[in-house]
Amino acid sequence: MNAIWTLSRRNLSLFFRDRMGVFFSLLSALILFLLYAFFLGQQLIDSLHEQFPQATAAQVEMFINSWVFAGITMITSLTTGLAALSVFVEDRASGRFQDFLVSPLRRVHLILGYLLSTFVIAVVMTLVVLAVGQLYLSVGGGGLSAAHLGQVLLSVLLSSAVCAAISSCVVTFVASNGAFSALSTIVGTGIGFLAGAYIPIGVLPEAVGTVMNALPFGQAAMLFRRPFTADSLDTLAGGNAPAIDTVQTFYGITGSLGGVDLTTGIIVASLATVGVVFVLLGSWRIGRTIR
């Protein structure tokens, strides 16, 4: 256990020492925030205000801001977990695995060291973004209640674990720093669309929405949106249940797959299953790569 923790600390130190790498791991979240702050946000606010003319501008804006930060938080759990594995790619590209293998370290220690450090980095960075989002929403008169904040924290842990597992498997197919940079760019660009964070899922064709609901990223985003938007949506709709259901479906807060509603329990079970499968695949692939 000491060997695993020592390797994890080494990976954590290498990641956080690269300040530009840390910044770029947050770039997708920053871009999404800027897009809404300067381009898309007002358009969504105006459109939603037309549907709820009885609501104040502040109430509409609070819902949109809460929805946006839910997406930002989910995206961060993926992009930072992937960025954490830059240490693995660098070790592979530099031939450092050979040095590890002639040491007393066992292969399983190396595997668990990479997985643990990836998970820790994803959690830490996502919590930082969550804190910024909570502060931003609180300044605007909103913010998460203690109960909803607790739900978000659990979602952070689950999403970070699943995204770290998926990333650990995918990154084993990358053999150079250049290829890893390209992969990070593609993921950082595409994850906002796959999670329905750039535009509401209700704007997209039904078939596209179904695909997004089937992906773990879309389901994880739902988990974040539910506590993030619960209070602001109730205030916006004045407690009108049909109106709340319509908005939740349009903005990807709720969804269905094959006629089955994606309840919180189903999403958690689905993500946990995906996480276990990719932990096993990732561990196997990392073990084959370390040679």
Automatic annotation (TrEMBL):
| Compartments where found | Cell membrane; Membrane
GO CC, any one term: plasma membrane
Transferase is among the record's keywords: no
Name any one Pfam family assigned in the record: ABC2_membrane
Q: How does it sit in the membrane?
A: Multi-pass membrane protein
- What residue stretches are annotated with the ABC transmembrane type-2 domain? 20-289
| Coarse class of the protein's main subcellular location | membrane
By its UniProt entry, which InterPro entries does this protein fall under?
A: ABC2_TM, ABC2_TM_bact-type, Nod_factor_ABC_transporter
Give the record's keywords alphabetically. Answer: Cell membrane, Membrane, Transmembrane, Transmembrane helix, Transport
One MF annotation (Gene Ontology) recorded for this entry = ABC-type transporter activity
Membrane-spanning regions, if any? Answer: 21-39, 67-89, 110-132, 152-175, 182-201, 266-286
Q: Which top-rank group of organisms is this from?
A: Bacteria
Task: Return the PANTHER family for the record.
Answer: NODULATION PROTEIN J
Question: What's this protein's family per the entry?
Answer: Belongs to the ABC-2 integral membrane protein family.
Protein name in UniProt: Transport permease protein
Origin organism is Klugiella xanthotipulae
The taxonomy runs:
Bacteria, Bacillati, Actinomycetota, Actinomycetes, Micrococcales
